[in-house]
Amino acid sequence: SCWGAGCKIDSFPITYLGLPLGAKFNEKDIWDPVIRRFEKRLSGWKAAYLSKGGRLTLIRSVLSSIPTYFLFLFPLPVSVARKLEAIQRNFLWGSFGGDFKFHLVRWNIVKQPLSFGGLGVRDLRLFNEALLGKWLWRFMTEKDNLWRKVVSIKYGTTNFGWYPSSPNGSYGCSLWRFISKGWGGFSPHFSFEVGDGRSISFWNNQWNEDGLLKDLFPSLFVLANDREASVADYWGQGTDSLGWRPIFVRDSFEDDDT
C-alpha cells in the first residue's frame, strides 16, 4: 500500500513544479499565487519611497518576472486581468487604502508602446493570447512531438495536417477548444513555401502574397471540382505543358456533354 511504502496520499488539484495539476483551466483560484506576487512586489510602502519613474520601472520588472508558464498554459480570466491591472495602476499613481490619487493617464494609453506615446507597460491579456497562440505554431512545426500526435488523433486535422480540427460540442478538452478559437487571428500572419506543392492546399492555405485564393476568388471556389486539392494537383494536371489547370464543375459538365 501507499502507507506501507511511505508515499504521500493526496487528491487533485495539487501543485506540481509550481503549476496547478488537475485543476480546471478556467478556475480563478489557480491565479492566486500570481496575484499574491503582484501585491507583495507592488506594495504601498515601496511606492512611498519611489518616484513615478521608479514605480514604472518596478512595474515592468514585476511583469517580466511573472511565471510565464502560467500565461503559456492558462487563459487569463478577465476578472484576474482587471485585478492585476488595478494593482499596477494604484502602485503607479500612489493610490493605497483611503489615500486616493488621480490617475494622470488612462491605462489604455499606459499600455501602449513607447513609440506610440505610451509608457510601455505590457498588456497582460494580449501577452497571454500571444503565448497561447504559440501552441498553434508549435502544432504546425512539431509534427513528431507526442503532444501533437495526441491532439491530432483525438481531434483530427485539416488542410493536409497543418491545422488542428476544432473540438465540437462538449467533446474534448475545453482548453484546446479555447486555443483553437485563436486560429482566425493567427493564420493571416504567415504563409507557406510551396515546395513540391503536395502538402499545400491550393484554396485553403496562404501560399501567395495576396491571401487565401478561396477568399480572393469566392465565385471560382464555389465552382471548384475539388476544394481540398493541393497546389500540385492543379499544376499541369498530367499534361505535357506546364501551367495551372484547375478543374471546375462547369468544366466537368462540358466534358460529359462531349
UniProtKB/TrEMBL annotation:
This is Uncharacterized protein. It comes from Opuntia streptacantha.
